[in-house]
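Final report, closing paragraph on structural work. Over the funding period we assembled a curated collection of sequence-structure pairs, and we close with a single example.
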Amino acid sequence: MKLNCIAAALSVAGLKSQASAFTAPKAGRVATKLDVTTLEEWQLLDNGSVVGSVRGHPDLSDGDIVTTSPLSSPGSAMSNGVVTTLTGSEYKLGTPMQLKRPNAPAGVEEPGMDRSSFLTSAGLVGLFAGGVAVGVGVSNSGEKPLSVPEAKIGMAFPGAVTNDELMKKLSERLTPFGYGANSLVATSLCCDEVNRPLEKALAKSYDEPFVMGGLAGFPFGGVTSFGAMAHHIPDGGSCLVVYGPHVGVDAYGSIGTVNRRGRAKGGACCGSGAAALAKIRKGQMVPMDGEAKSLPPTDSLDAQQAYVDAQLAPYAQRLLAADDRNVELPYALYDAQKKMMDGIVAKGAGAMEGNGKIALLGGIQINTPEEYSDYFLPLNFDLLDNKGKFIKSLIWS
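Its predicted structure, as stored:
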């Protein structure tokens, strides 16, 4: 079920309220770990999260509404005990909210599943979306208010811009270096269909992209694909390489899931990254020294997923220690992919012809429900010469 047009604004002091004015990412991201909190008047949502009013929360006021990340075992909510989310937070469930069934006899009530009814009847100002407190219905000095997904993106991925804003920034930064109709764009993005809108936007400026990526966004095409791409660049032109993992933010503000076209329930996003993370959580691949280990043999019919597993394994301890693993996952995937892409460019740059340049834009794609724009968080934007030597950073503040 989609959450249509819920107005929200960040309630954390010092953060900008407009999606178009997100600040650049800061080093040393630190999240506050949640203590065990009681949820009263709670409901289990269809995406596996629980929404309810808090009691005994270390930061929020009693009575504020919170929405947890999806539960590791949604069925455990029926026991009215302590539940655990996929990010490791624990909540004690108090009294469930009772809602009348539409055609129920007088006096017959049952725990409801309608989040909008819950918010209306509760009449409280706090909404907690997967670890971020925002205010519902708070205007932004006459500006267009933020939706729940946009507010969550601003908190978890500061510096993210919409696809339209990204294209404007690319034009501003690249045009002075001769980028235009004679340029070629190469992408290394996950094969998930939710990532195609960005490629379509890039195609409007640089024609159809050369695709290097596969599951989770890893550049499986390697040096061979980069060399082939280099030989496809129009005479006198340059190339732009856009790469990185992706993550979903659904209508409830939950990170790691997204509302897909034609489907009532959200689904894992990135599914490949989530599968690798699940193996880490189960202890199947947790190298203690930070080095990748050889994983058990995998059927060649699923070779890309085996590679994603292996590349994420060195980040296991970092992921397990994260306060929100769904937020940390795309950052870890990006670090692994940047290392791989830097190696590919260093070895493949010799295939460049003429005096063309290489622009490398790496970051995190953020997928949202249909009614919102997707976002992109730029983490690296470098301009290199035709030998792969660094010229300058093109990243914006």
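DSSP finds nine helices and 21 strands in the chain. Residues 1-34, 99-142 have pLDDT under 50 and may be disordered. We thank the funder for supporting this effort.
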